[in-house]
Fold these 2 entries.
Entry 1:
Amino acid sequence: MKILVTGAAGFIGYHLCQRLTLNDQAEVLGLDCLNDYYPVELKRARLVQLEGRDNFRFVQCDFAESTAFWAIYEHFKPDYVIHVGAQAGVRYSEVNPSAYVHSNLVGFANVLEAVRRLPPKHTVFASSSSVYGADAQVPFREDSPLGKPLSFYAATKQANEAMAFDYARNHGVFVTGLRFFTVYGPWGRPDMTPMLFAKAIQEGQTIKLFGEGRYRRDFTYIDDITEGVIRALLYPPASVTTPPFRVFNLGHNCPVEMIQFVRELETAMGRKALVELMPPQPTEMPETCADISKVKAATGYNPKVSLVEGVRRFVEWYRGYYA
Ligand SMILES: NC(=O)c1ccc[n+]([C@@H]2O[C@H](COP(=O)([O-])OP(=O)(O)OC[C@H]3O[C@@H](n4cnc5c(N)ncnc54)[C@H](O)[C@@H]3O)[C@@H](O)[C@H]2O)c1
């Protein structure tokens, strides 16, 4: 089967390509524009790990450039599409919203248009726990109404779900949105708290914890996420479903306070953190927690990696990469 993975040089896309090319059942085309939201050398280093796999090819392309993207898409003719390329990051979306319009709105529309014109069996795309908004009740359930977005990033992810729903209803596209919950692990994103905190502990800098360190996050280990994405991909919405659209939470269902996450990092790194407790931040949710019963029932998804084990693996990679 031929699988197109967008955002292939990104944190989650890279791990998906790794996992999908472990055996020769899939032929994977990884696509990424290698934007410089964070150091491109990390993206290139991820791609180096995939070099030499006969069933993996990489192409540098911006999926918001419709002509170039369509030509690649049409040539490859994927059986499945995993669209995890996007402009990520909550706080940056208040600084540079146009990057989000470009990749998450224009780019997302291009991907939908491609799958409408030449339909794969199934398309899955990255949504986010951020779609739940300020007043969501924990644990977050897929059938609860979406609240007001707390950031422009969250607004684009809500828009993505609405756009995909339209393509399912009006064009019969089979599509699943996956609401990821705070993904962490080796080869992670330098703008996310695990990397920021590890760097601060390593360099003796102060970690500022908003919401007095009491914000709770449903940290989900990368291998559990890739497992969930692939399960969702291979179990498309039933054809009797009208429209063939659904969303799943992909989380751990085990939230921890940020201060607890710092303590786990301290243990794994063998160093104390300098912590400064800060007031709440307007773009941050007080708590995220995924109800995962829907994806469990549909695909058998069952996250396995504990926070202690996940942080240990993350620190092991971090030390090696930044040595
Ligand atoms: N990491 C998390 O905890 C998390 C949580 C919720 C949702 N998500 C979503 O999951 C997806 C993957 O996140 P990630 O953590 O791997 O982020 P990432 O930034 O590491 O990866 C995204 C990749 O997409 C590429 N990209 C961006 N715009 C593009 C364009 N126009 N054309 C081609 N490539 C483009 C970037 O270069 C980058 O390599 C994103 O949609 C993100 O919003 C991630």
Entry 2:
Amino acid sequence: MQVIKTNIATNDIESEYSKFTSIEHRKKFAQFFTPFPIADLMAKWLIGNKALKTILEPAFGLGVFSRALLNYNENLKIKGFEIDQNIFGKAKNLFEENENISINLQDYMYNDWDNKYDGIICNPPYFKFHDYDNKNILKEIEVRIGCKLNGFTNLYTLFLLKSIYQLNKNGRAAYIIPSEFLNSDYGKLVKSYLIKSKTLRHIIVFNFKENVFDDALTTASILLCANDNKSSKVQFSNVGNLNDFANIESIIENYPNYLTEEQTVEFENLNPEIKWRTYYQEQNALKYKHLVPFANYGKVVRGIATGANDYFTFSPSKAKEFGIAKKYLLPCICKAIDSKKSFFTKKDFQELQTNNKSVFLLNALNPDENVKTYLAIGEEQEVNKKFLTASRNPWYSIENRPPSPIWVSVFNRNGLRFIRNEANISNLTTFHCIYLNMFSAPKTDLLFAYLLTDVSRQIFDDNRREYGNGLQKFEPNDINKSKMLDLEHLDTNTEIKILEYYKLYRQSVLDKKPNESFVNKINGIFIEHYT
Ligand SMILES: C[S@@+](CC[C@H](N)C(=O)[O-])C[C@H]1O[C@@H](n2cnc3c(N)ncnc32)[C@H](O)[C@@H]1O
């Protein structure tokens, strides 16, 4: 029996749905659809289980995986879960002629725990953790699976863990999920469970230039799991474009044999504590010698979090309007866009004030009458009841973070961006602060010269997190745990040479004619001395 009349082996159905559904609605339910060729590839993994009869599709959407599976075997018995009434109605219509498919309008995480399946296939919802009631779900997972996770764990990994728990003997699972958890702290416990379950077989990481999913700010990976005791290792593969799919198909066809031993790691050698990027990406740091931990030089700490930037930040005119005296205003860089160059000078700060930018932070300790009035406005607007302010005493106190000599930007497209804070002002969370220890502080310029180079960026890159679309993020600890070249290794003459180029570069930036050739020269010196 054929399922539906529309062309099922394409994404026409999803495109039609997206055309008539608002992006807000799609975002609310995390409705980013799997491209059909990917769904088909994942379906092939399930089809490889010769005993395949029962299928679970936990985040059904418009059933792209069911369509791909039914193309191979129309007798499969499929159960789907979907939480959104709207898309559920459309999916019901689509599959109404197929008695083998039942779709349930229910939350997958709270239902169906006692059933097991021969095949589970899914593109789970991806939310930022606080968009979802994680606490109750974590409890459910702990009771059912006996796996304790932390509150930052993302819902998509919880779907994955539940599905692995629901695999029949010889059952197979194919999941497409953001690769973020492979390289993040909350992923450690998830990775531990995956290793313990002994079901993980392949991790296929997408290095596509474009996003796999339209609009979704995330990078993708496919996890192939099998509950069959036929392998004791995981293979990591990278795919750069659709042509690489042929290779993944061969990998799937040859299971349980591996085409090559490349990038395979025995379960017992997989370390859940480290970023798994080590297993699938050549580490830049390996190209250099004389590396030391970044922590030898200093410490990265996130910038000041106010909990309500609009309220706490002041431009000169806003300060005037509320009569806030200078002594209550802490000079502070509030937006990344206000500091686009590698050097932020006193003159730059002056210019921002002249242009009436928000460059002050309210420091309301021992408030005078005007500040008290402004605080009363804050209470009226319930600024004092926000997540961060409510946990402070008094609610308007600000974190004690002295200005740091170097800032580093948090989100980037082209690796890390460092800024020398010559104005000696504070910063909000748009930058992290870099504090140097007493040994490296006298060498701030030399260190900063190093931070400007591609060599330093490449090495830091080993520790980045990715958010798709080429956007990268570094948490303070990603940098703290990074390696860097040991600057102690430089002789005095080389140091002097670097500092000369550094001064020339600085001057060119201040003159608004940045001359990158000076940084390239510094870069060349590091390559010469450390490779
Ligand atoms: C990322 S989409 C994937 C849809 C489809 N499987 C695909 O790959 O094209 C996730 C789907 O899961 C649904 N969903 C979100 N939370 C859910 C939950 N807790 N239980 C079941 N379905 C959920 C969303 O409404 C959405 O349709």
